Amino acid sequence: MDSVRSELPRTGAHIPIALKILIAGGFGAGKTTLVSALSEVRPLQTEEMLTDAGIGTDDLAGVEAKSTTTVAMDFGRITINEDLLVYLFGTPGQDRFWFLWDELAFGALGAVVLADTRRLADCFPSIGYFEQRGIPFVVGVNCFDGARRFSLETVREALDLDADVPMLLCDARERQSGKQVLIALVEHVARQHGEPVPA
Amino acid sequence: MWAESGVPHEWLDDDAGPVVRPYTLTGGRVRATSGFDLVAYVLADRNAQPAVHLDLHPEHRRLVALAARPVPVAELATGLDLAVGVVRVLLGDLVDRGLVTVHQPSAGPYLPDNDILKAVVSGLRAL
Questions:
Q1: How far is B112 from chain A (nearest CA, A)?
Q2: Structural domains of chain A in order of their starting residue, each with its CATH number
């Protein structure tokens, strides 16, 4: 999409710029909660159809008929202004839907990886995915009630994260907390462009 | 909802959702002609008259109606309560007939300029 809005003489309408941000992390790490907390509308859900052509690792042994299943994807919207919108997409949790990630990640501005310190290993695949594809990401350590609090340094070490990947504590239920994570991501993207956003 | 015999079926009402399998709508087509992005904006031609295309489904017409203003593909799927894959196929039909245009985000990693990033950060701060 062009960074200048495209005027459409035929309709008089113009096409806004939509930025796509992925919300990733292990199952139960708070992805849906974060999307809900940040979205200006009730979080929307859409379904992607999986035909057997797309299901490489799903266990369909013994199933002869061509079959389809659907994967629900949460998404939310934040209107910055009438020409600029941010769409948040929660990634499907199960590994067998990696091929959907490629579609989701296409053209994405960046990603938030939610980490749950009780099950830290669950976010390794997400981190690996974004690292391999050079997609900028930040890690939000979701502070669950009752979860033991680790220092960010300890978590960073456990995740073997590069020093320049921003990492912050957050509460996925709180909009104010979630927005700090998004701001950290956008600032990280700007720094990677070599054009830091002035504070 | 009416069973084949023409009498209302006690188990099937509007809440039950469509009884047809989703790809019945697409005539069994699974792959869209183009892979419209989830945030590609769809806009109906101002002079679009879907009614003259007798081969179109009601879902096609609803897509055209929803796209009177630019709407991203993901929101259209939600609006019609259809899987994204089905919506892509239907959109392909509409594009072929010149009823809508689809504005794809640029291919490859999208690098918005710094002004846009600044606007996003200040917009988020204001939340």
A1: 6
A2: 15-192 (3.40.50.300)
Distance of alpha carbon B121 from alpha carbon B112, whole angstroms: 13
Which residues make Cβ contacts (< 8 Å) with residue A193, sequence separation at least 6? B111, B114, B117
Q: What is the pLDDT of residue A66?
A: 46
Option in B78, B104, B119 nearest A44 (CB): B78
ipTM over 0.85: no
**3-state SS, residue B29:** coil
Strand, helix or coil for residue A128: helix
Q: How much is the mean pLDDT over chain A?
A: 82
Q: Where are the alpha helices (DSSP H) in B9-113?
A: 58-66, 73-80, 84-96
Q: Per residue in A57-101, pLDDT tens?
A: 444 443 334 455 667 788 999 999 999 999 999 988 766 677 788
Mean pLDDT of chain B: 81
**Residues A115 and A87 sit within 8 Å (Cβ to Cβ):** no
Cβ of B116 within 8 Å of Cβ of A3? The answer is yes
Cβ within 8 Å, pair B46-A189: no
Contact check, Cβ <8 Å, A68/B23: yes
pTM: 0.81
Which of 84-123 (B) contact A at CB < 8 A? 84-86, 101, 103-114, 116-121, 123
CA A121/CA A154 separation, integer angstroms: 14
Quote the tokens at residue B87. Answer: 């919506």
Over residues B58-86, the mean pLDDT reads: 92
| Closest chain B C-alpha to A156 CA, distance in angstroms | 25
Write down all domains in chain B, each with its CATH number in brackets: 26-125 (1.10.10)
Q: Number of H helices and number of E strands within chain B?
A: 4, 3
Say yes or no for a CB contact (<8 Å) between B84 and A3. Answer: no
Which residues from A are below 8 Å from B86, CB to CB? 49
